[in-house]
Sequence to fold (350 residues):
Amino acid sequence: MKPFFAFQWHITDACDQRCKHCYIFSEGQHAIDSMSWEDMMVTLAQIEDFCHIYGRRPYIYLTGGDPILHPDFWRLLDLFNQKSIPFTIMGNPFHLTPEVCAALKERGCQKYQMSIDGLEKTHDWFRKPGSFRETLQKIDMINNAGIRSVIMTTVSGVNIKEIPGIIDAVAQADVNVYAFSRYCPTSEEKADPSNANYMTPEAYRDLLSVCDAKFKAYEKAGCQTYFNKKDHLWTLYDYETGAFSIPEQARPDVIYGGCHCGDSHLTILPNGDIYACRRVQNSRVGSVYSDRMADVWVSQMDNYRHFDRFQKCAKCELKAWCRGCPAVASGARGDFYDADPQCWKIVEDD
Fold:
């Protein structure tokens, strides 16, 4: 069986919200981009060509904005179903009904991902009044349709103390999968330690410790929520606590884990831009309208595979498994290969 290759495909910027940490409008307002049906067919052909060339199967993370707002949303899902292309929807709760969830399942939707970015007051400040309760209320609807419910949190200095409470809320709501990733600064102002979004390495490690204990307690109690340790700094934490060990047979010239940028995913925006990673603001590597994506993968994308250029991680014994989050490093310091600002490990120079 051919391995999957993940495409995060943004088909529209249209959305019912204007979240304070949204990448789309992070540096000011702009026109709402949305792909035409013809453009989506060009994009899908590019995806299929890419997978044919490299012996992969496509997995689509369909998002926006809110992809359900695109006028050809259902038409595209019908095409995915005809081609047996598995997909996850990354969207909002506002247009979900039992009928909509059943229609998503019928067309092959495997997971539906929404966000909770704080307890009720904080989340509704980040996103939209009433959205905290509406998001949790739609979990049963998604689960009952046979779709896996996923909740993601973007952690920053604003909400770091509320993450344990969010874990309690998603466990009580029977969310199938929960994970969090960190806020990626999108300007020097947001990266400054005086900014409310900033987190010290020590504070972030303390958060992982608290969450690890909560995850284990819920798992022991039989909680059905899968707690996905998405952030690669979990590898460092697990290494320090003994939950992860470097395999004796590991080869020094092989990358075994860590960030998948340059390895198994690409992002496509509504204007056709190809990004190495949506969270890396300056990572445009081409366009589906003018560049063959299969060629981009072995040319421009090579800029994201120089593992010995990592300023801190290249000297760390966990280089092949961790490397933190280059997107956070890029947002904070403008360099994909700079040190992760929340990495607490002290790495000695040779």
DSSP finds eleven helices and ten strands in the chain. The mean pLDDT is 94. The longest strand covers residues 148-155. Residues 201-220 form the longest helix (20 residues).
